[in-house]
Design a protein that fits this description.
The structure holds 2 protein chains of 2 kinds. By secondary structure, chain A is an alpha/beta fold. Helix content of chain A is 44%, strand content 18%. In chain A, the strands form 4 sheets. Chain A has a 6-stranded mixed beta sheet, with helices on both faces. Chain A has a 4-stranded parallel beta sheet with strand order 7-6-5-8, with helices on both faces. In chain A, strands 1-2 form a two-stranded antiparallel ribbon. In chain A, α5 links the parallel β5 (108-113) and β6. The model of chain A has no long low-confidence stretch (mean pLDDT 96). Classes of the chains: A alpha/beta, B alpha/beta.
Chain lengths: 400, 268
């Protein structure tokens, strides 16, 4: 089932390269460089060095004993990507791409960010590798993730708030693409999720596959077998594809969890795979949240990093193959899981990852105590404490 | 021959170049779009490009973005676009080109969408995010419905690729004059001149070359024509003008500006 490197950038009918002509030479140059360096020993060694010594890999696979006992079902393991430098899995990809950009002699790096985690990880990688970075972020997201905006600035990155459209991740990507079209000869676009035109979805998947590869070897050590289930949250889907891809040929059930917002029957969610239809956005053919005319819909999630109306094309493919089960968790349940993990394990998870935790809790109850679930804890929740505090106080008010 | 191809032959016979003008359907309103179209035709536009707004116009600069959002807020959609086209067709035989993004066609189904707009009176389609590698299904529907598919090239497009793009294009080939989105207001640099010359040399007389993105004034139009373009394409400047003039004067002011641009395509 593993697709490896699809030459035409197609996962079944999904993916591809729906881009303005000006970007064609740029993505061809990128693809050429990526194919040249991905198996280059010096490149691998350098990336490996930064992943270990700078980012803090490998990350622990932690047995959440308290949570497991509290839930009373399958053993729950947490893949601790939250312990990486910067506090999220995003650094796996930004180090890889920034090293690639340096080899391509691109000095100016642009990126988009939703929750700010990819922006922070880009700013870090660029600071340490001596590159200049500029990050596009939806204005709405700059307001709800102020801490990350300041972190990016501290790390030497310029932050451009995007006031067009819905002022979230989708608009930040639009604006980054416009910048790329304008400065195509000097600029490297460091995309943060497994989305966009080929070769981004493949390249981001490959850089994030370190998550699944480590899960596999750690589980074989701890449990002498691969996990029975893995759970990861899906916005664009980079931590999820990095978790799933190395496990695709294993006897493992996979669950990708999207943001159910205030309910997928409403218009206030980001559950692209659960309720979307096929379409073309940001250079790829994939499932989208769109109306009957093909206009992209506004999305909602309490987790800014999941607030996106598209999804990586490989996820669309895995959905249609029924290899991965895609499901949703509401804002409410995500906040509950956020509180539960904080209280029982002393780990404050990112709101994005809280969606995966919430689903794993439900799933564990239906499984036997001898079975195992690995949840990718894609990030830590420090950035979210204000949002959660506000959510709790508003909901207490509402229930009065 | 299509209306677009006929028009280019007709203009060539007159030893002129073509002037292609743009209006966003539904901006600032459906009714005013008609006034703008009338103004453009009166001012001497040879071909009209009609924008159908998309929520995420990633090849467009702020001017067309804002017009897109406003037109969508006004409720512009395929049905209303078809009505607008039919209304124009009652008054004029001018070649009409749809400019929009791939998803609007894909989500309706290429064939259904294209046959719908063809029967309303559209002659050609420009999709800035449709790369030739992804275009097979789209092209099948285009050919089936006798539509012209106008593909884009850019200053960084290789010779080999220009040949490929022109071999699947019909009507004309659209050269994006600058690195950037639509509506840039910078002065043209030498690379634009060179890109036009190169593209013209490769295309020869096989298919006309239109040049747009950042052609804002008569001066810039002349620059582009001197380099060898067969058509100038002007879009954002009309939208900028619309924002500045009272409703009652739209038609006459648009006609006046269009006239100044058309003049550049006529050599005595």
């Amino acid at each position: 089932m593993k697709l490896g490197y699809p030459k035409d950038g197609k996962f079944g009918e999904f993916g591809g390269r729906f881009i303005p002509e000006t970007l064609v030479p740029a993505v061809e140059e990128l693809e050429h460089a990526y194919l040249k360096f991905k198996n280059d020993e010096n490149f691998r060694l350098e990336l490996d060095y930064y992943l270990r010594q700078y980012a803090g890999r490998p990350t622990p696979l932690y047995f959440a004993k308290n949570l497991t006992e509290f839930v009373g079902g399958a053993k729950i393991y947490l893949k601790r990507e939250d312990l990486l430098h910067g506090g999220a899995h995003k650094i796996n990809n930004t180090l890889g791409q920034a090293l690639l950009a340096r080899r391509m002699n691109k000095k100016r790096i642009i990126a988009e960010t939703g929750a700010g985690q990819h922006g922070v990880a880009t700013a870090m990688a660029c600071a340490v590798l001596g590159l200049q970075s500029e990050v596009y972020m939806g204005y709405k997201d700059t307001q709800r993730q102020k801490l990350n905006v300041f972190r990016m600035k501290l790390l030497g990155s310029a932050v451009h708030p995007v006031k067009e459209g819905t002022q979230t991740l989708k608009d930040a990507i639009n604006e980054a693409i416009r910048d790329w079209i304008t400065n195509v000869n000097t600029t490297y676009y460091l995309l943060g999720s497994a989305v966009g035109p080929h070769p981004y979805p493949v390249m981001v998947r490959d850089f994030q596959s370190v998550i699944g590869n480590e899960i596999l070897s750690q589980m074989k050590e701890l449990e002498k077998r691969s996990p029975d289930s893995v759970v990861a949250c899906v916005g664009g889907g980079s931590n999820a594809i990095g978790t799933f891809y190395p496990l695709i040929d294993e006897d493992t059930n996979m669950f990708g969890i999207e943001a159910g917002g205030i309910g997928i029957k409403t218009n206030h969610h980001s559950a692209t795979l659960s309720s979307g239809t096929k379409g073309i956005l940001h250079g790829m053919l994939t499932y989208l949240l769109q109306d009957k005319d093909g206009q992209i819909k506004d999305t909602h999630s309490i987790a800014a990093g999941l607030d996106y109306p598209g999804v990586g094309p490989e996820h669309s493919y895995l959905k249609d193959l029924n290899r991965v089960t895609y499901s949703t968790i509401s804002d409410d349940d995500a906040v509950r899981a956020f509180l539960m993990l904080s209280k029982h394990e002393g780990i404050i998870p990112a709101l994005e990852s809280s969606h995966a935790i919430a689903y794993a809790i439900k799933l564990a109850k239906k499984m036997s105590r001898s079975e195992t679930i690995v949840v990718t804890l894609s990030g830590r929740g420090d950035k979210d404490v204000e949002v959660v505090e506000r959510y709790l106080s508003e909901n207490v008010k509402n229930s009065r | 021959m299509s209306r677009i191809q006929d028009k280019f032959s007709e203009i060539k016979a007159k030893k002129q170049k073509a002037f292609i003008a743009y209006a966003m359907a539904g901006y600032p309103s459906d009714r005013e779009t008609m006034s703008i179209v009338r103004g453009l035709i009166k001012g001497g536009a040879d071909i009209l490009e009609l924008g159908l707004p998309f929520s995420d116009p990633l090849a467009d600069g702020p001017v067309i973005q804002n017009a897109s959002f406003q037109a969508l807020r006004n409720g512009m959609n395929l049905d209303r676009f078809v009505n607008l086209v039919k209304k124009i067709r009652k008054e004029s035989d001018i070649p009409l080109i749809l400019m929009t993004y791939a998803n609007l066609l894909y989500s309706h189904g290429y064939d259904e969408f294209i046959s719908t707009i063809k029967s309303a009176g559209i002659d050609g389609i420009i999709l800035p995010d449709m790369a030739i590698e992804e275009a097979q299904q789209y092209l099948n529907a285009v050919r089936k419905n006798n539509m012209d598919a106008i593909f884009l090239i850019s200053p960084n497009t290789t010779t080999e690729r220009i040949k490929k793009v022109s071999s699947v294009s019909s009507g004309f080939v659209y050269l994006v004059s600058v690195y950037g989105t639509t509506g840039g207001q910078q002065q043209f640099q030498k690379y634009t001149f060179d890109a036009i010359k190169t593209a013209k040399r490769i295309l020869g007389d096989k298919i006309p070359l239109g040049v747009g993105f950042g052609v804002n004034s008569a001066e810039q139009a002349r620059f582009v024509l001197q380099a060898g373009a067969d058509a100038i394409i002007v879009a954002s400047s009309f939208l900028r003008l619309i924002d500045k003039i009272p409703q009652a004067k739209i038609q006459s002011k648009i006609a006046l500006f269009a006239k100044s641009l058309k003049k550049t395509t006529i050599t005595e």
